[in-house]
């Protein structure tokens, strides 16, 4: 229990409500800490999920990594070690009881700093693990998260105390069931860190074709090892990974109204507009123009 008699979750609900009065994602004065609020169950959203800790304090959310489903609510936390394209959907939300959540992003260097400060000398391993996991919330982790969020009430303390509490949060995550995966994603020489470099390369050049042999060279692996470890981490192949990035960016461009579907297809790397339309429909359920009209109608309701 916190000092004011409320539970940690109740206090988090109050603070997040205060700093996110409208639906959407809100950047806070604490670096890399974001709040989310939704007042209705909305259709699936698509994007690249960054290395982060995500906590739902009110409501329920599902995330798909390829075909794998991750469901989490107030008693859980979602942790991600590497950039991966996902599909997410808020399942429980209303005007009276809005969906409320927070996201704390981190980097491999921040993980390494915590490992060094803890006197831990991790060994690089050749056993890549899935980049995403849902785990049961632990009281010590929730307490640290609450203390970080409470700093919003004393902004002068943020520059000094926020980095320290964030280190504590990362330390507790490293001590938890996903700790080894976080560690291996951060340290050089592990199979997971090699896959992270390949992922960064694909994201940077998502609109250009690649040779798998070149990706294998970046990873310092054989082609067969690259495919195996890449799928272990992301639940998809490099080609599938790139396709998701292309289609997500295409949807973003179409929603912005900047150009037509054929131009967008070429812009994100497709050589055939018809192939683009087929794969877009397969991913989003509707052809490009119909999908964008549907999304804009839903947004304007």
Automatic annotation (TrEMBL):
Q: Which SMART domains match?
A: HTH_ARAC
Q: Return one GO MF term.
A: DNA-binding transcription factor activity
**Keywords per UniProt:** Transcription, Transcription regulation
Its domain of life?
A: Bacteria
Pfam families, A to Z: AraC_N, HTH_18
| Residues covered by the HTH araC/xylS-type domain | 196-294
Cross-referenced InterPro entries: Homeodomain-like_sf (IPR009057), HTH_AraC (IPR018060), Tscrpt_reg_HTH_AraC_N (IPR009594)
**Protein name as catalogued:** AraC family transcriptional regulator
Source organism of the structure? Niallia alba
């Amino acid at each position: 229990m916190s000092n004011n008699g409320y539970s940690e979750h109740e206090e988090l609900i109050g603070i997040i409500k205060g700093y996110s009065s409208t639906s959407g994602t809100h950047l806070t004065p604490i670096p890399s800490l974001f709040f989310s609020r939704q007042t209705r169950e909305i259709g699936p959203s698509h994007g690249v999920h960054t290395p982060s800790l995500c906590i739902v304090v009110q409501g329920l959310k599902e995330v798909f990594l390829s075909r794998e489903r991750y469901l989490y609510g107030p008693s859980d936390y979602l942790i991600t070690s590497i950039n991966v394209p996902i599909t997410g959907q808020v399942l429980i939300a209303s005007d009276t009881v809005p969906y409320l959540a927070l996201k704390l992003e981190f980097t491999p260097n921040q993980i390494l700093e915590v490992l060094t400060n803890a006197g831990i000398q991790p060994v690089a391993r050749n056993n890549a693990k899935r980049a995403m996991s849902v785990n049961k919330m632990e009281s010590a982790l929730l307490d640290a998260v609450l203390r970080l969020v409470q700093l919003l009430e004393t902004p002068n303390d943020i520059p000094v105390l926020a980095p320290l509490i964030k280190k504590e949060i990362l330390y507790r995550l490293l001590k938890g069931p996903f700790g080894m995966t976080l560690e291996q994603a951060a340290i050089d020489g592990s199979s997971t860190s090699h896959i992270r470099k390949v992922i960064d390369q694909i994201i940077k050049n998502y609109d250009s074709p690649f040779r798998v042999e070149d990706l294998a060279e970046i990873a310092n692996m054989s082609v067969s090892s690259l495919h195996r470890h890449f799928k272990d981490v992301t639940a998809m192949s490099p080609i599938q990974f790139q396709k998701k990035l292309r289609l997500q960016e295409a949807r973003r461009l179409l929603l912005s109204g900047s150009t037509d579907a054929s131009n967008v297809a070429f812009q994100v790397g497709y050589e055939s507009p018809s192939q683009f339309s087929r794969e877009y429909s397969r991913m989003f359920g509707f052809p490009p123009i119909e999908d964008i009209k549907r999304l804009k109608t839903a947004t304007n309701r």
